[in-house]
TrEMBL record, chains A, B, C, D:
Its EC number is 2.6.1.76. Keywords: Aminotransferase, Pyridoxal phosphate, Transferase. It holds the Pfam family Aminotran_3. Gene3D superfamilies: Aspartate Aminotransferase, domain 1, Type I PLP-dependent aspartate aminotransferase-like (Major domain). The keyword Disulfide bond does not apply. InterPro entries: Aminotrans_3, Aminotrans_3_PPA_site, Dat, Ectoine_EctB, PyrdxlP-dep_Trfase, PyrdxlP-dep_Trfase_major, PyrdxlP-dep_Trfase_small. CDD domains: OAT_like. Belongs to the class-III pyridoxal-phosphate-dependent aminotransferase family. PROSITE patterns: AA_TRANSFER_CLASS_3. Pathway: Amine and polyamine biosynthesis; ectoine biosynthesis; L-ectoine from L-aspartate 4-semialdehyde: step 1/3. It comes from the Bacteria. This is Diaminobutyrate--2-oxoglutarate transaminase. Its cofactor is pyridoxal 5'-phosphate.
Length: 434, 434, 434, 434
C-alpha cells in the first residue's frame, strides 16, 4: 500500500485548504485522475473498480464514449453552455427526446421544470409547488429518508447528524414509517391513515407525501410495490400530492427508467437528477401533472438551471439507452445474479453479513454494526473496489455498480466484496485493527 | 422581425412540455444555438450582443478559447468528471491555483468548502455554518437582497413574489435597510445598532449578517465602501459573523476579484459561484475563516459538489485572468466610460432614465417604472442586444457585459441601449404598444 | 319548554355584543344565575343537575359552603386579593397546606410555580421549562390531546378546528398514538421507541413528552396504568422529561389527588389548574423536580399569578378533602356504580351507545357519531341535566359530576341520562328532529 | 428594619417550596396580609403605600368598598362563580354596563370576546383573529413592547431575557421603532412605510400591528397622539389591522377609559385585562370590529373565561367610575402635579434622575442606569413605598398609584420618592451599599 501512504507525508492542499466537511476523500485516501467505464484511476495509474458510481450519478459509467462524442462536438462547435432558462437548441433536443423516449411511451403527462441543477434543488421546487398548490404546509416524509441538504429538503430528511447541521429547527414535516420499518408487526399505513381520518390526531392535513421507492442513503430499504400502491391510493383518497424523489433510483437504477414504474403508480410530482445527464454533469428535473403547473414565471429560478452541456449528454443517453428496453432488461436480469452473490455472504455466524436487499442494480449488504460494514469497505478499497456504507448506523454496504458494467466487472466486484467480507471478519477475529 | 414570429406558429416543445415557471425565454423569444465571446447566436444565425452574461456567470465571455482548450483536453483524456468530494488532480490544481492567485496575494486565510454547485447551495452552507458556530438562529439580511431560492436562502431574500413561492413562513431572518435605502435621511446603521444595544428591542442576537456589496437582482444598488466598513465594524463589535454573498459580484465583476476588496474588509464567510468556473459550468464555493471550520465530515454534502470539468475551467480562468492585475485595471477603467454613457441617458424630462449607478462592469439604469424599463429591454432585443431588468418593480435596466468584451463591443452595446431608450420613449409618446 | 324559548324573542346582549366565539351558551340557551352543590339555577329558578362541573373545575361542587366561609371571611377582612408573586399570608397558607396534604404524604419533591392562573399558562410554563432545561425544541404529545389555546399549548393539542385557529403553522411538536389508539394491534410504544433509537428516523430528540392520563376533551380516553408506566420508563431511558398535564384529571377527579398516582409514576413536571382553587376561581400551578428549577427570577411571569382569593379557597379545599383518604375512596367506589349504569346503555342495536369508559368520576359514553351524542345531550338538557360531548367527532357524552354529588344526585343524573339516550333514539326512529 | 430581617432567620416555605421564578417577593421581603385603598399591610401590620397597584391591576385601589359590597353580596347569595362561556346574569349585567358606559358613549362598535382571564390570553386571541381574518402570519410589534409570556404573545414582546425563556425561536413577528426610539432623528414611520411600499423589502405583508400607547414594562415610553394617528393611518392605507394592547394602560390609567381615546383613533382590535375587574380578579377582554368576528364557536376557548365574580366587580366599577367623566378629569388633572414633582428630581448633576415622562397616572423617572433606579426603589421600600423599575435596563422607576389615591397619598408617595432619590444618591456618594 505504498501508493496510499506516500501522499500523506506532507499535508496536501486538501488538508490545508479544503474544509473539514470533506468526507469521501477520507475513506479513499488517493488522488483520482482519470476514469472510464466502470473504473477510476488514481494519479499513479492504479485502477479502482467503481461500485459507487458517483452515488448513483454515473449509471452509464464514467466518460461513456457514446455521450463523450456528443459532448465534445457540442463544446467544439461553441454550443451555448450556460443558458439560464432561455430556449436553446440543446434544450429543445433534450425536451423532445425526453418526451419521446420517456414520457410518451409511459403515457406520463408531465410538465418538465428545470430547477437548479442538483437534487436538492429539484426537491425544494417540488415541496414549494406542493405547498403552493394545496395551500398547506406539512409534508410527510419517511423514516430514513434522504432528500437533500438545503433547508427545505433537510426538513424531510431523517439523518440526525445532517439535521443537526441546520442550526434552526426543521419544521412543516411529519415522519411516517417506511415499508418494513416496524418489522411487519403493524399493518401498512395503519398509523398514517388513523392520523388522517381523525380530526383530533394533531397531524395538520399534509400538502404532500415525499418518498423514495428505494432509500439509498437510508440503508437500501426497498419498498414493496404493493406498499407503494397503497401509498398512492392513500394519497388519492386523502387528497395529498404524492412526490416520488427519484433522484438516486431513477434513470434505470432499479431497471425501468423510473423506479416507480414497477408498482404501476403515477406520482403527482417526480424529481430527477444524478444520472439524468448521464455524464456526471449537474442537472435536475422536476416533473409534475400539468394541472399542478401553477408557477408564476420565474417564481422559482436559479443560475445553472440551463446547463446545456448536460442537456446534450442527457439527450445522447436517452437515445442510447432508452429507445428500447435492452438496458432495462439487462439490469433486471442482473438483480438475481447480485442477490445470489450477496446471499452467500449472509449468515448467522456473527462473521457474515446479516441480510441483503435490493432491486435492479442497487443492493445493500447489512452487517451487525457500522464498524463491520466500514471494515469491509476499507478492505475492498485496498483490494481495488470502491464501496460505500449507508444506513442510520452506517451498517449497510451499498452496491451501485454502473448499469453498463460488463458481466466480468460485475463478477470481479462481487468477488472482491466476498474477499473483503472474509478478510474483515478475519482481522476482527485476530484482534487486528484494520 | 420575421425570424421572431415564425417560431410561434405552432406551439413549441417549450410551450407544450416545459413548465410555466420559465421566464427569460419569454422576453427573448428565439432559440439560441451557439455563443462565442460577447455574442449569442440563435438557430437562424442571428447574433445578439450579450450584456446579460448569464446573469453574471460569464464574466469571461461565452466559450472563452483559453478555457475551452483546457476543458476539451480534460474531457478528451477522460479526466474524472464527477468526483463528489473525492480528491482529484483537477481539484488539487484548482485549490492550488485558488490559493496562489486569490487567497495568498490578498492574505486571506480562508478554508475552501465545495457545497453543491449553485449559489443557493453556497448560501445555505454559509447560513448553516454561521448558525452552527454561534448557536443562534437569526440572520440579518438587507432590503432587496437576493440570495437564492432554496428555503434557507429564500428567507434572507427580499423579493415578495419569490418569497410567496415558499409555501411556508420564512423565519429566522430580520431585514435592515441597505445603503441609501432611506434616502440618506438616517445615519448609517442607526436603527440596526439601536436594536443590538437594546436588550428590549426584540431582535434576537443575530448569528450573522449577509450582504451583497452590490445588489444585482435588487436593482444594482451599490453599497459605499464606507458603509461596508461600518457594517464590518458593527459585526465585529456586536459579535455577529459577516457573510458577503459574492455570487454575482465576485470574480472580477466590480474590478477586484472579490467585490469587498475595495472596502478593505475581510468577511468571516464568503460565497462564490456563477463566474467561478469561468465557462458557465455549475460550481460554487463557500470560504470562511479557519477557526469557523467546525463542520463534521459530510455534515453538509451534495452530489455535484465535485464537478471536475468546472474545476478545470476555473483553474484556467484563474491563471488566465488573475495572475496579474490587468483584468482588474481594465474593468475599473471601463466603469467611467459606461457611467458617462449612462448619464447621457438620464434626465428629468419624463422620457429619459431617472438615474444610473454601478461599479466596475455592473451598472443599472433606473426608469420611472418597470414598464418603461421593460420597453427598453424589448427594443434592445429587437436591435440585437440582450439586457434584463432588475429592482423591486423591474424598473432598473441592468448591464452585465462580459469583462472580456472589446471596446467596440462595449460601445456597440451602449449605442444600442441609447437607441432603445430613445425608441421606447418615442413609442410611448406615439401611444404605440411595443 | 316555554322558559327556554321566550328568551329568544328579542336579540339578547349576548347575541348583539358578545363574539360569535361563544359556544356552551348555544347548547344551553338559558341564563344561569345561581348555583349550589351539584345544581345550577337559571334566572327563572329552574334547576339543572350539573354533570359538567365547569369542565372539571368544580370537583367540590358549586359554592361549596366549606370554602365559601373561608372566602367570604378573607374578602371581608380585606385580605390581599391581587398579589402578583409577592409573599402573602394567603399564599404561605396555601404552600404549607399543599406541602402537608399533597406533596409530603406522596413523597413528591416538587417545587411549586405559580404561572398565570389558567391551565394553558401552566402548560406554557411547563413547555418552556422543559425546552430550557434540555436545550431541545421538540415536545411529543399524543393523538387527541388537549393542552390549551395559547400558541405553545395549541401546538401540542390535537383538535384540527382549534389548531386551524392559530393562523400560523404549529411547530416543535410530534404526535404519538395514545393508549388504545391503534386498536391494540400494535405493541405499546413500538413506533415511538423505534423513532428514538434510530438516528435516521427524522424525529429530533424530544425535550419532553406531555400526556394526560385520561384525555377529557379528546373523548375520555383512559390510559392504562401499565401504559403510563411504560411511558415513564421510556422517558427515563431515552432522556426525555415527562410532563403530566393534570389540569382536568388532577384534584381527585380520578380518585387520587393526582391522576398518575394509580400508575405509581412520578412525572418530572406536572400542571394543575381547574379544580385546584376548589371554587371555580382562576388558579394554576406548575410543579417540577427541584433540579429542573433553573428559572431566572421573573423569566416567566403574569399579572394574575397571585390570585389570593383562590389561594384561600384552595387551602380550605385541601384541608377539607385531602387531609384523609375519604374523598378518594368515595370517588373510587363510585366508579363501578357509574360504569354499571353506562354499560346498560351500550349495545350493538344501532340505538344504544357503542362503548363506555372512564376512571373515578370521569366517564365517557361513546355513540356511533357526533349527531347522536349531541341529541342525547340536548334531550338531557331539556330534562334538566347538563352534559357535554367530547372526542374528535363530538361522539362521546362526557360525565364529570362533582365529586361531592350525593348518591341520590348521581342516581338522578344517571337516570336522566338513560332516559335521554332512549328518547334520542326514539326521536331518531320517528324521524323527528330534536 | 428588624421586621424585615427576622423573617429570614429560617428558610420560609417560599424559599423551600416556591420556584426560583418568583421575583417581586425578592425586592419586597415581607409577607403581605391585608390591603385597603392605596395601602398594603404586612403580617406585622406595617403599612406600605402602593404606587405599583398590582402592575396596573388595581386602578381603583385595594378592596375598593364600592366593589367589595357587590362581590360579597354575589358570593353570599351563591351567584354562579365559574361560568365558562355560559350565559349568566352576572355576564349579562357586565355586557350591558360595558355597552352603556364604555362602548356607546364612545360610539365604538366592538364585539366583546371573553378569552382566558389574563392579558396574555387576550393578546393570543387578538393575534389569532388578526391572522385568521387576513390569512397572513406576520405581526409587527414595537421595540420594548411587552405583550405577555405565552408563546404567541412572547414573539411580539421585546425583552431579551423573557424571549430567551421560550426555548424555541420566536417567529412571525417583525419589530419597528416605537415613538422617540431613534431620538427624533428619523421621520416617523419612514422605515416601516418604506418596507411596506417596497415589494423587495423582505417584510412579508403583515396581518396586523400591535402597540401599547404607553409602554409600561418597556420603560414608560409614551407615544405621542400624532404618532398614534399616523400609525392608524398607515394601518388603514396599507391594509393591516391595528391592535391596541390596552391591558395595562386601559381602564383609565391615562385618564380616558381607553388610552387611545386621546389620539382620536379607533383600533380594529383592543385587548383589556388587569383593572377591568376592578378588584384584582382575573378577567380579560378582546374587543374587535364586528366585521372581524369570524370566529367559529369555541375556536378559542378557556376554562376561566367566565370568572363571574370578576364580572360582578367589573360591573360595579363601570357604574361607580365610568358613568360620568369625574375620574377621567381627576386623573388628567393630577398628571401635571406628578410631572412637576418628578421634574424636580431630574437634573444633569449625575445624582438626580435624567428624565421623566408619563400620561395620566403612569409615570416613569429615568436614571442613568438600572443600579441607581433599583437603589431608589429599595430605599423607597424601606421608607414604606412600593415602587418598581421598568425599561430595558431596569433604569426607569415606574409610578402607578391607584387612580383613587387621595391627594394626600399622592403627595406622600411623591415625597417618599424624593427622599429615596436623595438618600440613594447619598449612599452612592458615601460608597455605602444599600
Amino acid at each position: 500500500m505504498t501508493a496510499l501512504t506516500d501522499i500523506t507525508t506532507a499535508p496536501s492542499v486538501f488538508e490545508t485548504v479544503e474544509s473539514e466537511v470533506r468526507s469521501y476523500c477520507r475513506a479513499w485516501p488517493v488522488v483520482f485522475e482519470r476514469a472510464t467505464g466502470s473504473r477510476l484511476y488514481d494519479e499513479h495509474g492504479r485502477p479502482f473498480l467503481d461500485f459507487f458510481a458517483g452515488a448513483g450519478s454515473l449509471n452509464y459509467g464514467h466518460n461513456n464514449p457514446l455521450l463523450k462524442r456528443a459532448l465534445l462536438d457540442y463544446l467544439a462547435r461553441d454550443g451555448v453552455t450556460h443558458g439560464l432558462d432561455m430556449s436553446t437548441t440543446a434544450k429543445r433536443d433534450f425536451l423532445e427526446a425526453f418526451r419521446e423516449t420517456v414520457l410518451e411511451p409511459r403515457a406520463l403527462p408531465y410538465k418538465v421544470m428545470f430547477p437548479g441543477p442538483t437534487g436538492t434543488n429539484a426537491v425544494e421546487a417540488a415541496l414549494k409547488l406542493a405547498r403552493k398548490v394545496t395551500g398547506r404546509e406539512t409534508v410527510v416524509s419517511f423514516t430514513n429518508a434522504f432528500h437533500g441538504m438545503s433547508l427545505g429538503s433537510l426538513a424531510v430528511t431523517g439523518n440526525a447528524a445532517k439535521r443537526a447541521g441546520a442550526g434552526v429547527p426543521l419544521n412543516h414535516a411529519a415522519q411516517m414509517p417506511f415499508d418494513h420499518y416496524l418489522g411487519g408487526r403493524v399493518p401498512d399505513f395503519l398509523w398514517f391513515e388513523r392520523l388522517l381520518e381523525d380530526p383530533g390526531s394533531g397531524l395538520d392535513h399534509p400538502a404532500a407525501v415525499i418518498v423514495e421507492t428505494v432509500q439509498g442513503e437510508g440503508g437500501v430499504n426497498v419498498a414493496r410495490a404493493e406498499w407503494l400502491r397503497k401509498l398512492a391510493d392513500l394519497c388519492r383518497r386523502r387528497d395529498m400530492l404524492l412526490i416520488v424523489d427519484d433522484v438516486q433510483m431513477g434513470c434505470g437504477r432499479t431497471g425501468a427508467f423510473f423506479s416507480f414504474e414497477e408498482a404501476g403508480i403515477t406520482p403527482d410530482i417526480v424529481t430527477l437528477s444524478k444520472s439524468i445527464s448521464g455524464y456526471g454533469l449537474p442537472m435536475a428535473l422536476c416533473l409534475f401533472r400539468p394541472e399542478l403547473d401553477l408557477w408564476q414565471p420565474g417564481e422559482h429560478n436559479g443560475t445553472f438551471r440551463g446547463n446545456n452541456p448536460a442537456f446534450v449528454t442527457a439527450t445522447a443517453a436517452l437515445h442510447a439507452y432508452w429507445g428500447d428496453g435492452a438496458l432495462r432488461s439487462r439490469t433486471l436480469g442482473r438483480a438475481a445474479r447480485v442477490e445470489r452473490a450477496l446471499l452467500d455472504l449472509c449468515g448467522d455466524d456473527g462473521r457474515s453479513a446479516v441480510a441483503c436487499r435490493g432491486r435492479g442494480l442497487v443492493w445493500g449488504l447489512e452487517f451487525a454494526d457500522g464498524e463491520r460494514a466500514e471494515a469491509v469497505c476499507r478492505r475492498a478499497f485496498e483490494l481495488g473496489l470502491l464501496l460505500e456504507t449507508s444506513g442510520p448506523h452506517g451498517e449497510v454496504v451499498k452496491l451501485l455498480p454502473p448499469l453498463t458494467a460488463t458481466d466480468d466487472e460485475l463478477d470481479e466486484g462481487l468477488g472482491i466484496l466476498a474477499r473483503s467480507v472474509r478478510h474483515a471478519a478475519e482481522r476482527r477475529t485476530t484482534g487486528r485493527a484494520a
